[in-house]
Amino acid sequence: MSTVAFITARGLFGRRRALLLLPLPILLVGLALLCRAYDVSPDQWGRAVIVGLGLTVVLPVVALIVGTGVLGSEVDDGTIVHILTKPLPRRDIILAKYAVAATVTTVVSAVPLFLTGLLAGSAKLGAALAVASLVGALAYSALFLLFSLLSRRPVLVGLVYILVWEGLLGNFVSGTKVLAVGQYVVTITDKIAPTTMIESSVGLTTALVMSAVFIVLGTIAAINRLGSFSLAGETS
Amino acid sequence: MSEAGVIHDIGYQRYRGPRLGRLALQQALYVQGLRAAFGLGRSAKAKIFPWLVAGIMLLVAVILAAIRSQTGQVIFTYMQFADQMSLLIIFFVAIVAPQLVSRDLRSNTLPLYFSRPLRAADYVLAKYAAMTTSMWLLLGVPQFIMFLGAAFTTKDGFRGVWNELGDLVPGLGYSLLWALMFAGIGLLVASFTGKQAFAAGGIVAVFMMTTPIFGVFMSLPSTTANSLAGLTSPMFLIAGVGQWLGGGADAEWDLGRFGPIYGIEAFCLIVSCVLLLLARYRKVASL
Question: How far apart are the C-alpha atoms of A221 and A219, rounded to whole Å?
């Protein structure tokens, strides 16, 4: 199991590919520093940076790239066969890959968000953002891992989820907010460290329970799906 | 064909008919790219995503036209339509740009293409033209539906239709600007990787992460920074150009005296994307 995790991590970071993940967090912290340097009140820029960039772009996009990268690229290349033919339970394969995806996403998004929160307000806000992005990373990773087993084009399915479901429908139809990971992240941040910058629209219990549902159901569905996984030929 | 180019002559009959030149190759690539953008001539799976986007946009246009014809209320103008649909446009770019260029990199078809009289520039321009056309159709057809809805229910007779046409034409030009800009950036990002998944993620990351910068610059205390805020993001850059050329009737933010800068940057961005694409395809062997 640890070997699977090691191979997955190397697949993500090997050959300088990890550098692709750097611009987003750097931009986030850089903007926060810029605003601090101009002495702008955090009430004015906090929403744009923390919610607009951090929670609705950096976290989901990093989770999407990493979450579909751990399994989707192996399905795409056909190298998944090498892992599937080893005498490992499918559950262990999924759990190892899920752990890598969630860890990488958490590190890449929680650290810059913590720094941004620190610059925007207090260490408490930073910690709240870090905790919320941990929950968000777990939920998003489970979801995108599942997508990469359900579809041959997981990134596009994930983009439909992020752009259309959370982005477009979330603005016009409030009912979808109960089923959007992004809203849970915002809510958890808001409940730990209430500020004027962040407004939550679902309850804390809903957020926590639904995050757990996403994590558990996503992982179980992914294990099930990999259990009966068949390698199709090149399509479309 | 000169006989000097023949390596082995094993006696087959030679082709003596007319040979189509670069122009025909370019045209073929263009048509193929345009069809591939909408998944035409490919399996049903390849049609899902482009037609999902196109379907939503057509649906919105029909709804807008219906509301306009029933109540006379204008919810989005032709220009606002493109701005409001920006997320879907980004998604469309993320679908189509990897289809057009990453697939060729992945399946190593480029050496085959370039063994013909086709040049790298022809390839790039054909792909760029195909992508631009597909995006322009994506925006223009819904705008035309909105126009039809307005034109058939106008109460001022022919003059009403003429006025409406006067609104539609700048709207279509604005859509073309969107198409040129987003096609250039999208193709450029996609041309760096053969993996469609990474290309799609990269494109979305580029567009999504530039948008909030606009909000940050807007919140800075300096009015110069506020006026220049739109320069940081392709989407707001286009909106700024639209505002500068359109007189700024529905200004989201004040351009100040920097309108021309928006025009210059938009032009430079489009040109540099195409130039970078051309530079990118100068050496294809070293992928």
Answer: 5
Would you call B74 an interface residue with chain A, using a CB distance cutoff of 8 Å?
A: no
**Sign of the alpha-carbon torsion through B233, B50, A66, A200:** positive
pLDDT tens for B15-46 read 888 888 889 999 999 999 999 999 998 888 88
Nearest to B200 among A48, A155, A168 (CB): A155
- Cβ-count burial A86-108 (b if 16+ within 10 Å, e if not): eeeebbebbbbbbbbbbbbbbbb
Residue ranges covered by each domain of chain B: 19-203
Q: Determine whether the interchain pair A159/B200 forms a contact, defined as Cβ–Cβ distance below 8 Å.
A: yes
Classify residue B121 as exposed, middle or buried by CB count within 10 Å of its CB (0-12, 13-18, 19+): middle
Task: Report the complex ipTM.
Answer: 0.81
SS3 of residue B194 by DSSP: coil
- Judge whether B207 is closer than 8 Å to chain A, CB to CB: no
Interface test with A, best of B192, B209, B217, B218 (most A CBs within 10 A): B209
Is-contact A44 A136, C-beta < 8 A?
no
